[in-house]
Amino acid sequence: MQEFKDYALFPIEDSPFSVLHTIDEQISFILVPAIEVIDEYGFEIDQELVDLLGLQRVEDVAVFLIVNMQENDLYVNLRAPILLAPASRKACQFIITNRDYPIRYLLTKKEGTHASP
Questions:
Q1: What DSSP assignment string belongs to 29-94?
Q2: How far apart are CA 87 and CA 84, in angstroms?
Q3: Which of 16, 60, 114, 115 is the most buried (most CB within 10 A)?
Q4: Is 43 exposed, middle or buried (0-12, 13-18, 19+ CB in 10 A)?
Q5: What is the maximal distance between C-alpha atoms in the chain?
């Protein structure tokens, strides 16, 4: 799998969604903060990843989910979130292996949040 190092994150106005776009290629992903999608979502990362992202506290990382469309429904990938550390300007996709999170989780509107696009 090819690795891209330079991305830009563009918020989509009046929604919880953002576009993550690579600078080097024409590749983009729609992201949504995990907190907008699911309440009981958690996982552990190892010290190597903490160091890579330059994290000092758990609050230093934002967890985003990749949105995809299948047959007119929107899904998010709970098994492989995007971890973004704004202070260090670093991010990565993390694959959760010690939990049974689905790759396709139906995106529905949570109470008190924005509507789906």
A1: EEEEEGGGT-SS------HHHHHHHT-SSGGG-EEEEEEEEETTEEEE-SSSPEEEETTTTEEEE-
A2: 9
A3: 16
A4: middle
A5: 41
Which of helix, strand or coil describes residue 5? coil
Task: Kindly report, residue by residue over 70-96, the tens digit of the pLDDT.
Answer: 988 999 999 999 999 999 999 999 999
Which residue carries 């949570």 as its tokens? 110
Q: Letter for the amino acid at 100?
A: D
> Which CATH number, 3.20.20.70, 2.30.290.10, 2.30.30.40, 3.30.43.10, labels domain 7-106?
2.30.290.10
**pTM for this one?**
0.85
